[in-house]
Each structure stands twice: as structure tokens, then as C-alpha cells.
Amino acid sequence: MASKRLQTAARKPRRTLRPTLRPTLRVDAQRNRDRVLEVAREAFTRLGADASLDDVAKQAGVGAGTLYRHFPTRDELLKAVYRSEVEKLAAAEQKFAETMPPMAALRAWMLLFVDYIAAKKIIAPALNNMVGGPSKVFEASHDQIWAAIRALVKRAIKSGDVRKDLDPIDLLRALIGVANVATSPDWQQSAKRLVDILITGSRPIK
Fold first, then answer.
1. pLDDT single digits (tens) 80-104
2. Between the chain's N and C termini, which has fewer beta carbons within 10 Å?
3. Is 22 domain-assigned?
4. How far is it, in rounded angstroms, from Cα 86 to Cα 113?
5. Rounded CA gap, 157 and 180, in Å?
6. What pTM does this model have?
């Protein structure tokens, strides 16, 4: 009997599991979502993670119901803002590489990275209260960021604009270091000035 059951099971076609596709937002709905994320990032960076969500909705030009439909809780909005910043960094690497000379592309991306740090400085403490802490939100982003900076530096080395012994991670560590030790609200300006210093110091020694 057991043998017959196995033979019968073997003849049955296997079910193929289809991936679950995320619903595609309408153009206007996607535009509203993107606008909310941009305004929320600015509000969180300027006012902190407790910034009024009603004010975010108003400045984004949408109703509070629209905001909460996309982001039911403050935590969901915070996570979405962070992920949006990572996606910008990943997309910008390719865009800058295709439209700018190697050194200009590297500089533009590093300036964008400063904005990413500013968003993360606000979001990380706020997400500490979530189950599992912020690690689950952040862990997937590291590879994307490292891959982007490595690709830009590799391109600049190949063009002869950057010294061959430059470790791209050192550039990020320098910018993160400024953010971690800064106590004044204008640390972003200092970090962006540091970008030009790092770019100058990365050029080949003649």
C-alpha cells in the first residue's frame, strides 16, 4: 500500500508557487506617496522624529487620510523614509555614472550620502523602540551603499582621477565620523565641505 501511495504521489504534477506581486500604484497615488516621503524626510531632519504628521500631509498637499492610507503608523513612515533614502543612493550611482565625469559623479553621490546620514541620525533612535530594533530595517541597506561607492571609486580609478590605493569605505567613514562627533545643528554644512576636501585628497599624487 505504501508503495502504491508513493507511485500515485509521484505521478501528481507539482504545484508551482508563484511569487506574490506587490500592487502597482496609480501614477497620481505614486506621486502623492513620493511627495509625502520627501516632505516627511525634510520635517524629520529639521524637527525630529516627532514632527507633526498632519503638518507633513498639509505641506505635501494631501489629506491626512491619504497619508495614513500609505503609512498607517509613524513607524511605517519612518521606515519608508529611510528606505527611500537608500533607494535614492542606489539609483543615483548609476544615474551619476552615466551623466557625469567620474570625479563629478563621486562628489555628487557623496553629497547625497550626507543627506542620507542626516535622515538616519533622526530615524535610528526612533526605531529603537520597534520589535527587533532598527537592525532589521538597516541590515539590507549596507550592501547597496557599499556597492554604490565602490563602483564610483572604481570608475574614477580607471579614469586616472583617483589614486589606486584609495579604499572607498574610508570616504564614508570620514563623513559618518563628522556626523557622529558633531554637536552643532550645522554639521551637514561641515560634512559637505569635507566632501570637497576628501575629493581633493583622493586625487593621484604627482
1. 888 888 888 889 999 999 999 999 9
2. C
3. no
4. 9
5. 29
6. 0.74
**CATH number, domain containing residue 63:** 1.10.10.60
Contact criterion met (CB below 8 Å) for 119 and 81: yes
Helices (H) and strands (E) in the chain, counts: 10, 0
Return the pLDDT at 119: 80
List pLDDT tens digits, range 31-77: 889 999 999 988 988 888 889 999 999 999 999 999 999 999 998 89
Using alpha carbons only, what angle is made at residue 202 by residues 121 and 122, rounded to the nearest 5 degrees?
5
From residue 128, alpha-carbon distances to 43, 138, 150 in Å are 19, 12, 29
d(CA 200, CA 6): 70
- Give the gyration radius of the chain's Cα atoms: 23
Smallest Cα–Cα separation from 118: which of 206, 178, 57?
Answer: 178
Closest by alpha carbon to 199, among 112, 105, 76, 115?
Answer: 105
Neighbours of 162 (CB within 10 A): 23
